[in-house]
Amino acid sequence: MNLYKSIEDLQAFVAAERAQGLRIAFVPTMGALHAGHLSLVKRALSECDRCIVSVFVNPTQFNDPRDLETYPRTLEADSALLASVGASALFAPEVSTIYPEEDKRTFDVGAVAEVMEGRFRPGHFNGVMQVVSRLFDIVRPDCAYFGEKDFQQISVIRAMVRLIGSPVEIIACPIVREADGLALSSRNVRLTPEGRQAAPSIYRILSESRSWAKELTPAALIERVTREINAVPTLRVEYFELVDTDSLQPISSWSDSPAPHGCITVYCGEVRLIDNIAYH
Q: Between 35-47 and 75-84, two packed helices, what is the crossing angle to 10 degrees?
């Protein structure tokens, strides 16, 4: 596996592969890789000829400087993991390579970026769109693979691709979980032993809530899920919303959407965890 730090070197590699008529996949990451990321690479390699992975902790999507500071950085381990699953190239640029000057672009993709994470993390999605559009422009892949743990992010990126007229096909891949149900996340390494014990309750309660949904209104379900999770020591719900899968707009009645989806953010101690579940 080749490691590239410069745009020119990476693009020379991509051009040589394209000259052979090969199909290029791309998996953008912020590193601290785990089995969830590796599942994206494996899926990409099953559908395309080459898979390029980027590892770049993007400063423009953090609205909490401390979160940026404490985000795990493990490039050597990441590189070994990617090589073990057959990734074709790793692009690990410096911040100055991605942003030679301040990126002042703003993306108006409408309501999908304004609810949930958009409300609680102002500026976050604009930063995501800045870096993803920049990476797409550098790599120019045929397909890009994203995990469904970041459910809202996938909708935002799809909207951005339509907005800028990018030809990249966005492919969503299922959440990968630990045996106890906890969604894999790079932030999980920051959980305390007590927090790690408590965190699987998030998915356990979400799973149980599918049966509660048969008898409760959306508002009553939100209240019950929130109450049950908050009753677990160290867990505190920031928000739990029931939305339409496509529009991401909140529903007040189950008949409002043919495909309702629940999206949740929970603080486990100081670590912010996200998860989601389908109700259809």
A: 40
Residue 225 CA to residue 95 CA, distance in Å, equals 40
Q: Is 57 helix (H, G, I), strand (E, B) or coil?
A: coil
Find the angle CA(65)-CA(238)-CA(233) to the nearest 5 degrees. 105
Q: What dihedral do alpha carbons 274, 191, 37, 152 form, nearest 10°?
A: 10
Catalytic residue set: 37
Provide the β-strand partners of residue 79.
Answer: none
* Residue 226 neighbours by CB distance under 10 Å: 18
Say if strands 271-278 and 260-268 run parallel, antiparallel, or are unpaired: antiparallel
**Total-model pTM:** 0.96
CA distances from 267 to 122, 163, 180, 184, 279 (A): 18, 33, 18, 15, 23
Quote the CA–CA distance of 214 and 208 in Å, as a whole number.
11
Do the beta carbons of residue 17 and residue 146 sit within 8 Å? Answer: no
CB 259 within 8 A of CB 245: yes
What's the pLDDT tens digit per position in 61-113? 998 888 899 888 999 999 999 999 999 999 999 999 999 999 999 999 999 99
Report the Cα 202 to chain-centroid distance in Å: 18
The whole-angstrom separation of Cα 44 and Cα 48 is 6
Q: How many whole angstroms separate alpha carbon 146 and alpha carbon 150?
A: 8
Asked whether the beta carbons of 268 and 195 are under 8 A apart, the reply is yes
